[in-house]
Design goal:
alpha+beta, binds adenosine-5'-triphosphate, OB fold (Dihydrolipoamide Acetyltransferase, E2P), single chain, five-stranded mixed barrel, binds manganese (II) ion, 2 domains, 467 residues, BirA Bifunctional Protein, domain 2, eight-stranded mixed beta sheet
């Protein structure tokens, strides 16, 4: 038996009828094995879909007893046989084995993923094996579907995919949540208690992992008009929540000749397109999430597709919260950021759907957002969804040179560092806008999973990094 892409059928294709009635070969990992006196049933999964392929070893299958013994939960297997329609049963097809070979055993006394269900907390500790469970297989496939949908959406609208840098010299958010990148010998410096000398560092000055590709995207938007980034982003925020990661993937479209209204329109269409793609292209996995993870999920998403996105200003949001008569842990007050509990009240109780909040106080938003004529608020927009809260943060950018210079200074940053950013306003400036969508927040929302750590293959959070 030789491996070849040509004679091997993926289980998803077999389930759809590919090779029906003929001799095929499949590979995969054993999920369960059941034996009666005369027949052995093996459920095989190769990750191509949620469903397992039922493999039947009947009495006259020429597979030695000793080889059958080695087929245990978790073992990897190659099976040849005739693909037949399944009489009755849950699956449409089954494989009548004519030959089988265990490629790698999984001793039952030590293989952790036996039949019973494990908690997500436990599975995080064995993240190298959790991909072999139904839930994590489904999450991985959903991420794939959504990634392709992101590219399709923007390509259809004439955006160019921009590779923004991972190492940067500036804090795009001005929030100071940066991981530093350095080759300085920190151990030695600490023991000698000498000053850091950045001229000795790799880049000759401090450098960081990017918190956002936005500023770089602005450069290209001011040349190609429409671009988007889709890459890893890093934030050293010490927030141990179910919606923050230290390393996450962010999608950031940036559009020239576009104001806040255009920005909101694209954001809304984008969210709808992603939900539609998930329901259409990951139907089997979405059914699983709906049944096992969050009952009612599909109906909720369909309802969202049918509903309007409510649009209110930050000032209106604060008024609504004050008048709600609700007792919040943090009292809403003009000038303070919206808390998660406030976002949930707006989306789940007051408007029962997505809410777009615009025009936040300048003090709580980044320096690059366009200042309104009131001199108090900026052209920001956050898209809030039920269950999750903020899924998108965006704004129209400040395109006026003098105003931007003043805002950088007010934010305690130095205009010299941002000379290139200011140049964009000096030469051919245009109104432009964009937003950032955290990919894992999206996946969490569309899968109904509760914790953001369970929708990224390898989560990195405060005090936790492995592999
Ligand atoms: P939050 O207030 O929830 O921390 P933020 O205001 O810091 O969000 P932005 O700077 O606007 O977020 O980033 C844009 C988007 O990136 C957010 O809307 C969110 O979807 C995502 N995001 C931000 N921080 C994280 C994080 N630590 N982990 C995962 N996603 C994140
Ligand atoms: Mn944050």
């Amino acid at each position: 038996m030789q491996f070849s892409f040509e004679n091997t059928v993926r289980i998803a294709d077999a389930a759809a009828g590919k090779g029906l009635g003929t001799e095929i070969a499949v590979h995969g990992w054993v999920r369960t094995k059941r034996s009666s006196k005369s027949v052995t049933f093996v459920e095989l999964n190769d990750g191509s879909c949620m469903s397992n392929l039922q493999v039947i070893f009947s009495e006259d299958t020429p597979v030695p007893e000793a080889e059958l013994e080695r087929i245990q939960t978790g073992a990897s297997l190659e099976v040849h046989g005739v693909l037949a329609e399944s009489p009755g049963g849950r699956q449409s097809v089954e494989l009548q084995a004519s030959a089988a070979r265990v490629i790698g055993e999984a001793p039952p006394e030590s293989y952790p993923l036996q039949k019973k269900r494990h908690s997500f907390e436990y599975l995080r500790e064995i993240a190298h094996l959790r991909a072999r469970t139904n839930t994590f297989g489904a999450v991985a496939r959903l991420r794939n579907t959504l990634s392709m949908a992101v590219h399709n959406f923007f390509q259809d609208y004439g955006f160019y995919y921009l590779h923004s840098p991972i190492v940067t010299a500036s804090d795009a958010e001005g929030a100071g949540e940066l991981f530093q990148v350095t080759t300085l010998p920190l151990d030695r410096i600490a023991s000698q208690e000498t000053e850091l000398d950045y001229s000795e560092d790799f880049f000759g000055k401090p450098a960081y992992l990017t918190v956002s590709g936005q500023l770089n995207a602005e450069i290209y938007a001011c040349a190609l008009e429409r671009v988007y980034t889709f890459g890893p982003t890093f934030r050293a925020e010490n927030s141990n929540t179910s919606r923050h990661l230290a390393e996450f993937w962010m999608i950031e479209p940036e559009m020239a000749f576009c104001d806040l209204d255009g920005n909101i329109e694209i954001a809304e269409r984008f969210i709808r397109a992603l939900i539609e793609a998930a329901l259409r292209e990951s139907a089997e996995d979405m059914q699983f999430f709906d049944k096992r993870i969050r009952p009612g999920l599909i109906a909720e998403l369909e309802q969202l597709l049918a509903s309007e996105f409510t649009r209110i200003t930050y000032t209106e949001a604060i008024e609504a919260l004050e008048q709600s008569g609700k007792r919040f842990e943090y009292r809403p007050s003009w000038g303070a950021d919206l808390q998660s509990e406030h976002e949930r009240y707006l989306t789940e109780e007051l408007y029962s759907g997505p809410v777009i909040v615009t025009d936040y106080p300048k003090e709580i938003k980044a320096f690059y957002m366009k200042l309104n004529d009131d001199d108090k608020t900026v052209r920001a927009m956050d898209v809030l969804v039920p269950q999750l809260g903020e899924i998108i943060g965006g704004s129209q950018r400040e395109e006026r040179l003098e105003v931007l210079r003043r805002r950088i200074t007010e934010a305690g940053l130095s205009p010299e560092t941002y000379w290139w950013y200011l140049d964009l306003r000096r030469f051919g400036t245009v109104p432009h806008s964009g937003f950032g969508l955290g990919f894992e927040r999206l996946v969490r929302y569309l899968s109904g999973m509760q914790n953001i750590r369970d929708v990224i293959p390898f989560p990195r959070t405060v005090r936790s990094v492995e592999f």
